[in-house]
Amino acid sequence: MPLFILYAAFYFQEKVASKLFLIHAMFSLLPSLVSIWASTIEILCNLQYNFVLHNLYIQLLLTNHMSKITHVCFDIGGVANRELPREQVVSRGQEYFGQDFSGEKLREMMFPIIAKADIWREFQNGMIPAQRYLEFSLYTGGFAPSDQNKNNLRQLLEEWCGAPYQPILDLVDDLKRNSYHTSVLSNNNEIMYNTPGAEIKNRVDVSLSSHEILVSKPYWQAFAILRGKVKADSPGQVLFIDNKTENTEAAQSCGLQAFHFRSKELGMDTAFAELMEELKRKGIRV
């Protein structure tokens, strides 16, 4: 029956659009099918942009957000670690590469573009190894790709990750003690993912990095992989915590509940206080 209605909506958009309220009424009668319907419509929406199906999908997601949270997923950068301030990173870079090293030089080397290719994105998505990324970065910065320079740049990236943010680590431990499933979904790479600042990956039940799953946030495939790995019964049972609105909005569009951790705007401690208030509001035991 659900598939019949979906196909009807797909081929007879105008007729179905005027009767969407009938479909909405069916949702209230069939709550156990909400997750299945949402997943099916999401697939169709990805295959073809369709106004009627999109509206139907959004209504399903709103219903799905009423789910009880059983899974909590964290980002790493700016959430689970306290990154080294940019000015300190530049200062360290000057020790490695000379006094002419600047914030602009750091940006150029971190995010090199070679022949219109986004090398940083390729590195994060596991398409190139660390050594190639370091070579491209040094080339962009005008430095020789010597072993010494590669080691210095690797060291700089590792230092930038800073230290783990203990309140989040303690929160993960509390959530696990209260029988919540915990996870990480991080845009990361083989250098920065293996630093002390990424300690949270050793605390959660499931940890996913973009360089391992070969796709990064905010692409919907990353959230689909997350849901498959954590085995939540419905996407609305997952609360996703990230410091970038583009990622939290993407998570919500995939049916997850999401919280914007505003560390950049407020600082780590105030953002954490906001998170704890939100967890209490949602009835999460911590």
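That was protein one. Protein two is written in the same sequence-then-structure order:
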Amino acid sequence: MLPPEALLEVRKRLPARSAGKPPLLFVHGGYCDAWFWEPYFLPWFAAQGYPAYALSLRGHGASGGRDSLFIAGLDDYETDVEHVAGTLSAAPVLIGHSMGAAVVERIVAKRPVRGAALLAPLPPAGLLSIATRLAASHPNFAMRMQNGDPSRLSTPVSASACPASRSASAKLSSGASSTSNVPYGSETMRPPRSHTAARTWRSPKSRPAAFAALGATYQ
């Protein structure tokens, strides 16, 4: 397991007025980062009164750890999520997509959480069988995925996927801080002093946690 990452990018969208609703923490999948949630998820949930946060796991987006991207594992990503969750004002509902869903699953298996949602989660057996079918049916696409560097996809991909995020991506790439005229906020989180400190956030025990999984059935 790698040491705690010094810099973790967190993008957020906050409601105009506090509605007393719990924060949501979004965890991206492979080959993307926190921008994945910006065009639709963060603003939509903020409009419903939920403080919405999305982190970039180490080695992704504007987070540190690119040098260790290809040796980082789910345990390291779990530590990233635990740390960011510990910085929020209340225990968050965790929402993970694909690989991010696998990270959320690991947390749910170890501790009580306020709630969790898994979007297109990874199958228990991993992606080998899916990758094999993809290589057979769409070899050109598989080759492009194999040659891609997920640590460098953020700016060009986010600019093409969401034109509104171009200015935010440019500022993040240049190291500049977000300003009020940028539609999405971004900040960096310092690591916890110890691995134990990352696990200080607690969820209410008065009601059972809500849990949802959305995605295809893998065979």
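Strands lie at 8-13, 24-27, 52-55, 93-97, 115-119, 185-189, 210-214. Keep this in mind for the problem set.
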